[in-house]
Amino acid sequence: MLFIRCHGAYRTACSLAMSGQAAECYVQCRSVLEYAAYAVHINRNPKLGKTWLDRHVDDAGMKAAKKAFQHVTVAESVKAANRHAAERFETVYQRTIDFGGHPNERSVTTNIKMTEEPDRREMLAILQHGDGIQLDMALKTTAQCGMIALEMLETIFGAKFELLGIRAAMLDLRRTGI
Predict the structure, then answer these.
(1) CA distance 28 to 126
(2) Predicted confidence band at 66 (pLDDT cuts at 50, 70, 90)?
(3) What percent of the chain has a predicted confidence (pLDDT) above 90?
(4) Contact 75, 86 (CB under 8 A)
(5) Angle made by CA atoms 168, 174, 176, in degrees to the nearest 5
(6) Are the C-beta atoms of 154 and 170 separated by less than 8 Å?
(7) What's the whole-number average pLDDT of the chain?
(8) Could you tell me the sign of the dihedral formed by the alpha carbons of 146, 151, 152, 157, in that order?
(9) What is the separation of C-alpha 44 from the centre of its chain, rounded to a whole number of angstroms?
(10) Which residues contact 128 (CB under 8 A, 6 or more apart)?
(11) What total of structural domains would you count in the chain?
(12) pTM for this entry
C-alpha cells in the first residue's frame, strides 16, 4: 500500500513541478521519499507494521509510532537495505525540506523576485515559475525522487523489478545522470 501511495505522491509531484509550482512540488517529493523509506523500514522490521497501523489507537500507540518512525531510524533501515540509495535519499530528502517540504527560509526566498528602485523595494511572490533555475531544480529533484524511491522499493520487490525490466530501465536512467 505504501508503494501505491508513493506512486500517487510522485504523480502529484510531477504535476506540480511541470506546472511551475516549485515550492509545492517539494512537499510531494518529500512524501514520495517517505512512503518508499517507510516501506523499506517496515519490510526490514516486520513488527513495525503493527506499530505503524496502531498509531491512532491511543497515546501509547502514537508515542511508539513516532519513536519507531523517526527520520534517523528510518534512514538507518534504508542504509542497511541499499547504502548508495541511502546517500542519495538523505541528500535529496534534506533538499525537499529546505525548498518547500517545511516552511523554511529557502522555500520562501527562492520563490520571490525582488526589484529595487531608489525610493522603494518590491517583492513579488512567484507561485508558478517559468523557465529558469527554480523550475529546472524542481523538475530535476522530482525525477531524482522518483528514481531514489524506485531504488528503495527495489530492495523489497527486486524479483518483480527484474521480471518487468524496471531494474534495467533504472540502470539506463542512472547512466544519464538522474
Answers:
(1) 18
(2) very high
(3) 82
(4) yes
(5) 115
(6) yes
(7) 94
(8) positive
(9) 20
(10) 19, 20, 21
(11) 1
(12) 0.91
Distance CA 120, CA 138 (A): 31
**Which helix H or strand E contains 116, and what residues bound it?**
strand 112-117
Q: Which domain holds residue 59?
A: 2-175
Return the closest-CA partner of residue 10 out of 34, 31, 24, 40: 31
**Does the pLDDT value for residue 177 go beyond 80?**
no
111 pLDDT above the threshold of 90: no
| Amino acid making up residue 112 | I
What's the CA gap between 72 and 141, in Å, rounded? Answer: 21
- pLDDT tens digits along 117-133: 899 999 888 889 999 99
Residue 170 CA to residue 147 CA, distance in Å, equals 7
Please report the DSSP string for 57-105 in residue order: TSHHHHHHHHHHT-HHHHHHHHHHH-HHHHHHHHHHHHHHIIIIIS--H
In the predicted structure, residue 178 carries a pLDDT above the cut 80: no
pLDDT, tens digit (0-9, with 9 covering 90-100), for 136-162: 999 999 999 999 999 999 999 999 999
Rg (CA), the chain: 18
Question: 145: closest CA among 7, 4, 2?
Answer: 7
User: Is the pLDDT assigned to residue 49 strictly greater than 80?
Assistant: yes
Residue type, 85: A
d(CA 18, CA 136): 10
